[in-house]
Amino acid sequence: MDDLKLYCQDQLSSLLKVENVVKVFLKADLYNAAILREKCLVFISSNFKKVVLTKDWELMCKSEGDKMIEVTRFVGKYS
Q1: Running DSSP on this structure, what letter comes out for residue 1?
Q2: What is the value of pTM for the model shown?
């Protein structure tokens, strides 16, 4: 089962876009998909100026404050 989870994380990470990365990040966090979660953080960091303009980012800031803080700290550390 772990191999399947790793495969799925790899496949999903190849589909990351500005428009879906926040939702994927939240699902990766929910399902403890550490590799996918980390790839989302890297993607967000690389595309931060665009990601923060999305509706999903706004919704995450309103409902998932702890995750928003974590993401912005990650971005600050690596930018």
Answers
A1: -
A2: 0.91
Asked whether the beta carbons of 40 and 21 are under 8 A apart, the reply is yes
Going from the first residue of the chain to its last (79 residues), give the mean pLDDT of each consecutive group of 10, the final group possibly shorter: 89 97 97 96 96 96 92 87
The Cβ of residue 15 has, within 10 Å, a number of other Cβ atoms equal to 9
Q: What is the DSSP letter of 41?
A: H
**CA 61 vs CA 16, 25, 50, 56: distances in Å:** 20, 13, 15, 9
Nearest 10 degrees: CA dihedral of 66, 70, 71, 76?
Answer: 140
Return d(Cα 33, Cα 22) in angstroms, integer.
14
Distance CA 1, CA 70 (A): 29
